[in-house]
Design a protein that fits this description.
Elements: H1 8-11, E1 20-23, H2 33-42, E2 47-50, H3 61-66, E3 70-75, H4 82-89, E4 94-97, H5 100-112, E5 116-119, E6 133-136, E7 139-145, E8 149-160, E9 165-166, H6 175-181, E10 182-193, E11 212-215
Parallel strand pairs: 1-2, 1-8, 2-3, 3-4, 8-10, 10-11
Antiparallel strand pairs: 5-7, 6-7, 8-9
């Protein structure tokens, strides 16, 4: 089955206002920036977004946030975004914080059809408020529910027309579990190849979890660095 979409705009055209959206990436690494920009142009609003973080003020999910398109954010980290803090403190944005491992496991559980699971993460903290607990072998655990989304947006280094995906290094991060949790998963890929071109051992996510694939146009393949750190020369004569 050929799952390719002609353009990023067409790939996200049917995402409605009020949709639940799971988005891959960690910081600015491996984020589906092209699909996010296409969704910004598309106009859907009132989105409930599940993602590790919310980008930065002028990039990634920060673009949707700044345009007032996000109603609720479920994340594990919310730093580096002043507009996020402003909206939350002003009561304009609903925020649910989860431990990072819990967020990842909840997405994975959603993709595998597991409705809930027990975890020790968050016991005795505000994360546990209102949640069922159970003692197993003398240790207390929280019951966490799986997370699923109407749509999922992910980015991969390579993908074929059947939706099989391969990620590059740390850009793999949340992308596989996000893709698993989406009822309709849209993947933007830097390189679109024909079925059979990917070695089976190279595939990180099978196409069964992906419904649409779109190749990122060369002029839209910008990758930003969240924080650039360089070495400082402290030698007396300035030589390395």
């Amino acid at each position: 089955m050929d799952k390719t979409a002609p353009t990023p705009s067409q790939a996200v055209a049917d995402i409605p206002t009020g949709a639940t959206l799971a988005v891959g990436g960690f910081g600015l690494c491996g984020i589906p920036s092209t699909l996010i920009s296409a969704l910004l142009d598309q106009g859907a609003t009132g989105l409930c977004v599940v993602s590790n973080n919310c980008g930065v003020d002028d990039w990634g999910l920060g673009l949707l946030l700044g345009a007032g398109r996000i109603a609720k954010m479920t994340s594990s980290y919310v730093g580096e975004n002043k507009e996020f803090a402003r909206q939350y403190l002003a009561g304009e944005l609903e925020v649910e914080l989860l431990p990072q491992g819990t967020l990842a496991e909840s997405l994975r559980a959603g993709g595998l059809g597991i409705p809930a699971y027990y975890t020790p993460a968050g016991v005795g903290t505000s994360v546990a408020e209102g949640k069922e607990t159970r003692v197993i072998d003398g240790r207390e655990y929280l019951l966490e529910h799986a997370i699923t989304a109407d749509f999922a947006l992910v980015r991969a280094a390579k993908g074929d027309r059947h939706g099989n995906l391969a990620f590059h290094a740390s850009a793999r991060n949340f992308n596989p579990v996000v893709a698993m949790a989406g009822r309709v998963t849209v993947a933007e890929v830097e390189e679109l190849v024909e079925p059979g071109a990917l070695d089976p051992d190279e595939i990180h996510l099978p196409g069964v979890f992906v419904q649409r694939v779109v190749e990122v146009p060369p002029d839209q393949r910008e990758k930003r660095i969240e924080k650039r750190t360089v070495a400082v020369d402290t030698t007396e004569n300035g030589a390395a």
